[in-house]
Amino acid sequence: MKNFFMNSRGILLKAFSFEGGLFGKLFPRGGGKGFFSKGSFSGVQPSQGDMNSPHGTLHDTPREQLIKQWASSEWIEYQAWIFQKEFMTLHRWMEMREISLAMEEAPLITVVTPVYNTDPADLKECLASVRLQAYHNWEMCIVDDGSTNESTLAVLRSFARDDSRIRVIFSRKNQGICGATNRAMAAAAGSYIAFLDHDDRLALDALFHVARVLVSDPGIDVVYSDRDMLSPRGLRFMHLFKPDWSPELLFSMNYICHLMVYRASLIWKVGGLRSKYEGSQDYDLILRVMEWNPRVHHISRVLYHWRQNENSVALNHDAKTYAYRAGVLALTHALERRGLKGRVSELSHLWRGHYRVELTPPGGSAFFMPALPGDIPGDAFAPALEDAVTAALRGEPAIVHGEGSHGIGNHGTASHGEGTHGTGTSSHGTAALEEFIVVLSPLLSCGDKRAALLEMISWFQIPEVGIVTGKIVTAGEKPLTVHAGMVQKPDGMPLFIFDGKPESLPGYMAATFVVRNVIAPHPCCFAVRKSLWLLLRGIDSRYKGGHGVTDLALRALKNGFRTVYTPFARFEISSPEILEDIWRKSDIPFFKGRWDSLLSLRDPYYNRYLTLKLVDMGLDADVGDMAAENGNHIFNIA
């Protein structure tokens, strides 16, 4: 099946044939290793040197044939997307170069790459992707980690000889990825460090877009971009369109890896790369950097191409099992450094590199559980919720974790710990209770309600988490997903990803199976800090339906409190269609008026290139539909 690949919607597609026709002319055959001549890189053409260049050397311009080849994909819908959204032309490359040269205080970006016996053709492509950057102010620091392959060494010497911006340090013995990368960073002169693996490829405009971000806002510490993969044939596929900065998603996977650019001083402040986490050293690095509250920027562009090979986790997820053990260790130590109590395990039923962090609920946790009626008309949902919470807050909270806790029954009734008071103190009169409000529709059932509540409340150990929502599925032997995280659409209505799909489907980025950040909770299933509810004064009385809860979450986000979705707080419902009635069109004008600036930008936790027309998180529908309906005719331009 080597000529077949899975597309972004899980459909098996045959790989493209690039022979003949206009498509073949645009994307000529001969990618991968066969594209390079034996002695030199054929994708470079020398051009007149620019006397304004700070390097005082000739710069290289990519050939049009190379640009087209590097835009070739295994997937028809992704090929359509590349051509429509991010296709690079030589003219556009030259425009970027001119803009780059005109930048004031253009930052020097150092690309660091450790090398060890890399396939010469792959290494040539990697180094050429840096040399051909539209951005001019870069350098590349390479540490050869004791390679014994003479062809690998010859490629390094050739590129270093031809371009003074490429510097190679040759080590006599192998130090490992961390040691080699640290040595490369120690030789770097740039104020920012970009990481590039020895057989991967940068997009030709990668450093240009990074530099533009850094020039526009010099206070940014970390930049990351979207990425895709290079198949064994050297063609692009398996895109990863990422959300904006999502700290809790980072506890589930290293979703930001490739392309990563850091302020150099910040890397050294946290101690550089550490060899005890070899294989997940980049994961350990970002987890440590997070603790310094960096300013992080996501560039929603595919600026990095991660190559598959038989020894790479990109192709064989069991190729480096030590890397995943290191990932568990990195997360475990991250919890310890932050004073978070919990344990870490790898999610064995997913593609490797996905983790579960099981946090312990804050000691002395207590909650108020509003008595929400099950037969609320949709246009009375928000007022009824506000009234139910107000009534609940007049009563006494139930302790769900801590000394004297008896837990909670399966029907929403609570047993109080001995000596519990509604005043916020424990029976010993010392430790103040952490108080939360838990909203659960009586239509939802759960096999172990106490465990589900503990799971939701546990994420409040993280001070910036203000709201937590759970997973809702249909009851029965083959449950379907009802809620696995909500996306807010610009039209004011929500999109529930994978709604109606089998619960067994993890989805894009395993979205239904992992803890992650979302913009808002399901209005019938969430927990919120009592203090936050009071700060925000609850539900705005101008709402009638579920938008009132979304508005609450957006106000929380504006005040620095994030919303988290956890699939490990799982609830069932027999008639999911009842939940649809709470979304009232009459609420949309006021909601859109209040949040127009956010809605016009997009949901920060949902990439702009993923569809809002379907629930499957595929490519945005206009590109995907054109590719599916018209095949290659999308490229028949007059």
What is the strand content? Answer: 15-25%
| Poorly predicted residue ranges | 1-42, 46-58, 403-407, 409-431, 627-638
Question: For the residues shown, what is the average pLDDT?
Answer: 85
What's the shape?
Answer: elongated
Q: How many β-strands, per DSSP?
A: 25
Rounded to an integer in angstroms, the radius of gyration calculated over CA atoms is 27 Å
Q: What's the helical proportion of residues?
A: 25-40%
Helix- and strand-based class? alpha+beta
Describe this structure in words.
It contains 17 helices and 25 strands. The protein is an alpha+beta fold. The strands form six sheets. Strands 5, 6, 7, 8, 9, 10, 11, 12 and 13 form a nine-stranded mixed β-sheet that branches. Helix 5 links the parallel strand 5 and strand 6. It is elongated, with a radius of gyration of 27 Å.
Please outline what is shown here:
The chain is an alpha+beta fold.
Keywords:
638 residues, alpha+beta, nine-stranded mixed sheet, eight-stranded mixed sheet, 17 helices, 21% strand, disordered N terminus, disordered C terminus
Present the secondary structure layout.
Blueprint: E1 4-6, E2 12-14, H1 21-26, E3 44-46, E4 60-62, H2 64-69, H3 76-86, H4 90-102, E5 109-115, H5 120-131, E6 138-144, H6 150-162, E7 166-170, H7 177-186, E8 192-195, E9 201-202, H8 206-216, E10 222-230, E11 236-240, E12 260-263, H9 264-269, H10 281-290, E13 296-307, H11 321-338, E14 342-346, E15 355-359, E16 365-368, H12 381-393, E17 398-401, E18 434-440, H13 449-458, E19 465-474, E20 481-483, E21 486-488, E22 494-496, E23 516-518, E24 525-529, H14 530-536, H15 547-558, E25 562-573, H16 588-601, H17 621-630
Parallel strand pairs: 5-6, 5-8, 6-7, 10-13, 16-18, 19-25
Antiparallel strand pairs: 1-2, 3-4, 8-12, 9-13, 10-11, 10-12, 14-15, 16-17, 18-24, 19-20, 19-24, 21-22, 23-25
Helix pairs in contact: 3-17, 5-6, 10-11
